[in-house]
C-alpha cells in the first residue's frame, strides 16, 4: 500500500565491475531487473564505444536466426517456445555458438539454392512438355526439304502454314515457340505486327491448366504461341520482342521424329528431377527440424547477450583499463539483492577480485518506480498516460482503483448491462493464463490487459443500477413499493379529510388520463424504498423530471467531494517535500475558496432534503435562486432555508474574498521575504526532494533560513545557490496563473461533473428506446406468432445491446471518466513531470515469433 501511495525511495549507486566479471555480473542483474543504468558515454558515438564489435556480432547472429526462422516457417515446421527463459550464454560458448550458426546458415543456403535450381529446371521442363503437346497441331510437315529457288506457284489452294508451300516460295522459314502470360497476348501480337510489318504468322492457344512461373513462383494462366517467320533479320526482331515481353522460349523440333525424341527425353528428366527434388526436400526438412529444436533458446540467448553489451557500452572505463564503472538507479529496498547479484556474477566468472558497489549522493531527480501487480497495473497505466508521477509525490492510482470505476458506473448505471460486463471481465480473469488470450489480436489484447478495470466497472455498474433501479431500462420490484395507491381513494378517509385533501373516487379513476399520488395524504407514502429508487417511478409521467433533479444534484455533490479530496492530497505532497508554507499559503486558501462556495452548495442541497417534507415541500425555496442571491445581495428579503442564512452567506463570501489575495500574493511575497530578509539557511532535505530542478522556489529556499524547522545550521550547497538569480516576477506570474486557473477551474470543473448526469440520462434513454422499439413490439404480438417472432427479436436486441449500449456507450463513459480524473481531479495535486524507472531486465525482452517471419 505504501509503495502504491508514493513511488519507491531511490538511490544512485556506483558499480565497480572487473573486466573479467562484467559480463556475468550484468547477466545476473538482467535476470533480476533491479537497476536502471545511466549512460556515462553520452558524448561518445555509438560506433566508438568499447563493445561495439560484440554488438555487431550479436546483430550478425540475429540476422542468421531471422533467416532460420523464415526457412522454418516456409517449411511449415512448428516453432517451439519454452516456458522457461534460458540464461545468457557464457563467454566460452559464444564463439562456438557463432560457428555452429554460421555453418548451419551456409549449409541451408546451399541446399536451398540447389533446391530452387532443381525446382526451376523442373518447371521449365514441364512448360516445355506442354508447349510440345499444344504446338503439335499448329503446323503440318510431311516431308523435310532443303530450301531451293523456283518460280512462284499459284497460292489459291495452298495454305501459308504448309511447309512444302513455303519451300516452294523460296524463303528460309523459321519458328519461335514458347509461353507467354495471359495478359500480354494482345499487346505481344500487336507489337509483332507493327515491328515485323506482317511478315510473321502468330498462332497461339490457351493452356488448360495454370502453371507456376519458374521465376516468381506465382501460379498463372499461360498461352502457348508459335511464330512462323522468314528471314534472319525478322527472326532477330522476333526474339528481341519475346525477351521484352518475358516470354519463355523453347526450341521447336523440325520433324516428328525429333519431337518424339525430345518428348521422351523430357519425361525421363522430369522423373529424375522429381526423385532428386524429393530427396533434397527431405534432407532440408531434417536439417530445419533439428534447427527448430534449439532456435528458441538461441534467440533468447542472443537477445540477452546483445542487451548486456549494450549496457556495458554505457559504462566508463577505468584508467587502468581493468575495471568498468557504472552508475545505476536502484530502489533502496533492493540494495541487498543488488549486492547479492554482483556476488553471484563474480562467483560464476571465477574471479579472485569480486565486483562491488557504493551508494553515492546526488542532487539529481531520480526516476519514478511504482510497483504494481496484475490488478493495479491497468489503473497505474491510466495515470501514467496523463504523465509519469514526479519523484515521491502522491500517486493517484491508489484512489483511482475505486473512483474511476465508480464514476464510470454513475454514467453507466444499469444492473443488466453492468452484469453482462462483469461476466465478460470475469471470464477473462478466470482464463488469464490461457496462451491464446496473451497472443490475441490488438483489440482483444486491449480488453485482456484491462480485464480488472472492466471487472470493477461492471461490479460498480451493478451497484449503481440497483440505486437507479434500472435493469435493461426496466425497474425491478424487489422489496415492494413504498407507495400505496388504495390510500388515495375517498372511501378510505373520513369526511373531514375529504375537505382538506384531493382524493380519488370512481369517476376520477374512470375519466382522468393522469392520476396523481399525493404523499401528504396519510397512508399513501409508507416509507422510502430500502435500496435505490422506488420502482413506482417507472410508471410515473414525471419520472424524467424527478431523475434529472436527483442525478444533477448527485453529480454536483460527487464532483465537489472529488475535487476537494484532490486538494487535500496536495497537502500530503507539501508535508512530504517539507514545504509547509504551501499548506498555509496555497492549500488552505484553495480549500476555503472551494468549501465556502461549493461546499455551501452541498450543504443547502442536503439541508433541503432533510428538513423539508412532503407537507412543506410547496413552500421550500429554490436552491438555485438562493445560491444566486448569495452573490447578488437582493434588496428585498427572501424566505431562506433557515434563519440567519443571510449572515452566514456574508461570512462565507468574506472568507472567500480574503482567500483570493492570499492565494495570489501569499507565496510570492513569502519567498521574496525569505530571499531578501534572511541570510542563507539550510532547508532540511533528506534524499531527493527536487520535483522541479532549478526552480525559483528552490533557489529562494536554498538561499534563506529554514523557518519551518527552526534550524540555524548551514547546508553544504547553500552558499552556492545564493548566488543564483532570484526572479520575483517569474514567481509572481506563475502563482497568479495558477490561482486564476484554480479559481475559474472550480466553477468550470464543477460544471464539468454534470457529465455524470448527462451520460446517465443518455444511457437510460437509449436503453428505453431500444426496449420500446424491439422487445415491446415482440412481446405484444399474438401468441400464435409471438414465439416465432420473439426469438429473432431477442437475438437482435442482444446484438444491439452489446454493440450500442455496452461497447459504444461504455467507451463514451470510459473516456469521460478518464477526463474527470485527468483534468478535474489530478490537476489539484498531481504534477506528473517525472521519468519512468526502466530497469535493465531480461523480462522486458520479447521472445515471441510474429507472423512476419522475424523475431520480436
UniProtKB/TrEMBL annotation:
Transmembrane parts of this sequence: 406-430, 451-468, 554-572, 584-607, 651-674, 785-808
GO annotation terms (biological process): cellular response to increased oxygen levels; intracellular iron ion homeostasis; vacuolar acidification
Tagged with keyword Membrane: yes
Coiled coil (residue ranges): 94-128
Membrane topology: Multi-pass membrane protein
UniProt key word DNA repair: no
Family indicated by similarity: Belongs to the V-ATPase 116 kDa subunit family.
GO cellular component, one term: plasma membrane
Species of origin: Microcebus murinus (Gray mouse lemur)
Protein name per its UniProtKB record: V-type proton ATPase subunit a
Compartment list: Membrane
Signal peptide: none
Lineage: Eukaryota, Metazoa, Chordata, Craniata, Vertebrata
Pfam families in the cross-refs: V_ATPase_I
Chief site of localization: membrane
Amino acid at each position: 500500500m505504501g509503495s502504491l501511495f508514493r513511488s519507491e525511495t531511490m538511490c544512485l549507486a556506483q558499480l565497480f565491475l572487473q573486466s573479467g566479471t562484467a559480463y556475468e555480473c550484468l547477466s545476473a542483474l538482467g535476470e533480476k531487473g533491479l537497476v536502471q543504468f545511466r549512460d556515462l558515454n553520452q558524448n561518445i558515438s555509438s560506433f566508438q564505444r568499447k563493445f561495439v564489435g560484440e554488438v555487431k556480432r550479436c546483430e550478425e547472429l540475429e540476422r542468421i536466426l531471422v533467416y532460420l526462422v523464415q526457412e522454418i516457417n516456409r517449411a511449415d515446421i512448428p516453432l517451439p517456445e519454452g516456458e522457461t527463459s534460458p540464461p545468457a550464454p557464457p563467454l566460452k560458448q559464444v564463439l562456438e555458438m557463432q560457428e555452429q550458426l554460421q555453418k548451419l546458415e551456409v549449409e541451408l543456403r546451399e541446399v536451398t539454392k540447389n533446391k530452387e535450381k532443381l525446382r526451376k529446371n523442373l518447371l521449365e521442363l514441364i512448360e516445355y512438355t506442354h508447349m510440345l503437346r499444344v504446338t503439335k497441331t499448329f503446323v503440318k510437315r510431311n516431308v523435310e526439304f532443303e530450301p531451293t529457288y523456283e518460280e512462284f506457284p499459284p497460292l489459291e489452294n495452298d495454305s501459308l502454314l504448309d511447309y512444302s508451300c513455303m519451300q516452294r516460295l523460296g524463303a528460309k522459314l523459321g519458328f519461335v515457340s514458347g509461353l507467354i502470360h495471359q495478359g500480354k497476348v494482345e499487346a505481344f501480337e500487336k507489337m509483332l505486327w507493327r515491328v515485323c510489318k506482317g511478315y510473321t504468322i502468330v498462332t497461339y492457344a490457351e493452356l488448360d491448366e495454370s502453371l507456376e512461373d519458374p521465376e516468381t513462383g506465382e501460379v498463372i494462366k499461360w498461352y502457348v504461341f508459335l511464330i512462323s517467320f522468314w528471314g534472319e533479320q525478322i527472326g532477330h526482331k522476333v526474339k528481341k520482342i519475346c525477351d521484352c515481353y518475358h516470354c519463355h522460349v523453347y526450341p521447336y523440333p523440325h520433324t516428328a521424329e525429333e519431337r518424339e525424341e525430345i518428348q521422351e527425353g523430357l519425361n525421363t528428366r522430369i522423373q529424375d528431377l522429381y526423385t532428386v527434388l524429393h530427396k533434397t526436400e527431405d534432407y532440408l526438412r531434417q536439417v530445419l527440424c533439428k534447427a527448430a529444436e534449439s532456435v528458441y533458446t538461441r534467440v533468447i540467448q542472443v537477445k540477452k547477450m546483445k542487451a548486456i553489451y549494450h549496457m556495458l557500452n554505457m559504462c566508463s572505463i577505468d584508467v587502468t583499463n581493468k575495471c568498468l564503472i557504472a552508475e545505476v538507479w536502484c530502489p533502496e529496498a533492493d540494495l541487498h539483492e543488488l549486492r547479492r547479484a554482483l556476488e553471484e556474477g563474480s562467483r560464476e566468472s571465477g574471479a579472485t577480485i569480486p565486483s562491488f558497489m557504493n551508494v553515492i549522493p546526488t542532487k539529481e531527480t531520480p526516476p519514478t518506480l511504482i510497483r504494481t501487480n496484475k490488478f493495479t497495473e491497468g489503473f497505474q497505466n491510466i495515470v501514467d498516460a496523463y504523465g509519469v508521477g514526479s519523484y515521491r509525490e502522491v500517486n493517484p492510482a491508489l484512489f483511482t482503483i475505486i473512483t474511476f470505476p465508480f464514476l464510470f458506473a454513475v454514467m453507466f448505471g444499469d444492473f443488466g448491462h453492468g452484469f453482462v460486463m462483469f461476466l465478460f471481465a470475469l471470464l477473462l480473469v478466470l482464463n488469464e493464463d490461457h496462451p491464446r488470450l496473451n497472443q490475441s489480436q490488438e483489440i482483444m489484447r486491449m480488453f485482456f490487459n484491462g480485464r480488472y478495470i472492466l471487472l470493477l466497472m461492471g461490479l460498480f455498474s451493478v451497484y449503481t443500477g440497483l440505486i437507479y433501479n434500472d435493469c435493461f431500462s426496466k425497474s425491478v420490484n424487489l422489496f415492494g413499493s413504498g407507495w400505496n395507491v388504495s390510500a388515495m381513494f375517498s372511501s378510505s378517509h373520513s369526511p373531514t379529510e375529504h375537505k382538506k385533501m384531493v382524493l380519488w373516487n370512481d369517476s376520477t379513476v374512470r375519466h382522468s388520463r393522469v392520476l396523481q399520488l399525493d404523499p401528504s395524504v396519510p397512508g399513501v407514502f409508507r416509507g422510502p424504498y430500502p435500496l435505490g429508487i422506488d420502482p413506482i417511478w417507472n410508471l410515473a409521467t414525471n419520472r424524467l423530471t424527478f431523475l434529472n433533479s436527483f442525478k444533477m444534484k448527485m453529480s454536483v455533490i460527487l464532483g465537489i467531494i472529488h475535487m476537494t479530496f484532490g486538494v487535500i492530497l496536495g497537502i500530503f505532497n507539501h508535508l512530504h517535500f517539507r514545504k509547509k508554507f504551501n499548506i498555509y499559503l496555497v492549500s488552505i486558501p484553495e480549500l476555503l475558496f472551494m468549501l465556502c462556495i461549493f461546499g455551501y452548495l452541498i450543504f443547502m442541497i442536503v439541508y433541503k432534503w432533510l428538513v423539508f417534507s412532503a407537507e412543506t415541500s410547496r413552500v421550500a425555496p429554490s436552491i438555485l435562486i438562493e445560491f444566486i442571491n448569495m452573490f447578488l445581495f437582493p434588496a428585498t428579503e427572501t424566505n431562506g432555508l433557515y434563519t440567519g442564512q443571510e449572515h452566514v452567506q456574508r461570512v462565507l463570501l468574506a472568507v472567500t474574498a480574503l482567500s483570493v489575495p492570499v492565494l495570489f500574493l501569499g507565496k510570492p511575497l513569502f519567498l521574496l521575504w525569505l530571499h531578501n530578509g534572511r541570510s542563507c539557511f539550510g532547508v532540511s532535505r533528506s534524499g531527493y526532494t527536487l520535483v522541479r530542478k532549478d526552480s525559483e522556489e528552490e533557489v529562494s529556499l536554498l538561499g534563506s533560513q529554514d523557518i519551518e524547522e527552526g534550524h540555524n545550521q548551514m547546508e553544504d550547497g547553500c552558499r552556492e545557490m545564493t548566488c543564483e538569480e532570484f526572479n520575483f516576477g517569474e514567481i509572481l506570474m506563475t502563482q497568479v496563473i495558477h490561482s486564476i486557473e484554480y479559481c475559474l477551474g472550480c466553477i468550470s470543473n464543477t460544471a464539468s461533473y454534470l457529465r455524470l448526469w448527462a451520460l446517465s440520462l443518455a444511457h437510460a434513454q437509449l436503453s428505453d428506446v431500444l426496449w420500446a422499439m424491439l422487445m415491446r413490439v415482440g412481446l405484444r404480438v399474438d401468441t400464435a406468432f409471438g414465439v416465432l417472432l420473439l426469438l429473432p427479436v431477442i437475438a437482435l436486441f442482444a446484438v444491439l445491446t452489446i454493440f450500442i449500449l455496452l461497447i459504444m456507450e461504455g467507451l463514451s463513459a470510459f473516456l469521460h471518466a478518464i477526463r474527470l480524473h485527468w483534468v478535474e481531479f489530478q490537476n489539484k495535486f498531481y504534477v506528473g513531470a517525472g521519468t519512468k524507472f526502466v530497469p535493465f531486465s531480461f523480462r522486458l525482452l520479447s521472445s515471441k515469433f510474429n507472423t512476419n517471419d522475424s523475431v520480436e
